Amino acid sequence: MRFTFPKEEKLKREKQIREVFDKGTSITVFPLKLIFLRTENKISKFQVGFTVPKKNFREAVQRNRIKRLLREAYRLNKHRIFNKSEGSYALMFLYLGKEMTSFQDVETTLRKVFEKFLTRMDDEKADS
To answer: Which secondary structure element, helix H or strand E, spans residue 120, and what is its range?
Structure first.
């Protein structure tokens, strides 16, 4: 199993990011919020972006640290959703907390978000 986060998996296009925020569905497990949207992407199963509001963390150093923690937690745990989901998705992770956090807290929360995401996917499959 390769724990990588290649360029193809990064959500970068402004149009696509705006679409995720406008049309996406959200899951919240404080301090993380996941907004996701099913896409027709053939390059990668998931495209992921991370954001930390400037309103809560004025210093770029703090925002960058939290984003780095989020990316690392995603990279190490993405196999949990990669093998169990069908179709391709654009995912946007927002950090809602107002205080600096540890990697363990971020990873635990991310796992809970993934569980809710998979549950939501199962529900969608059942409705189809």
So the answer is: helix 103-127
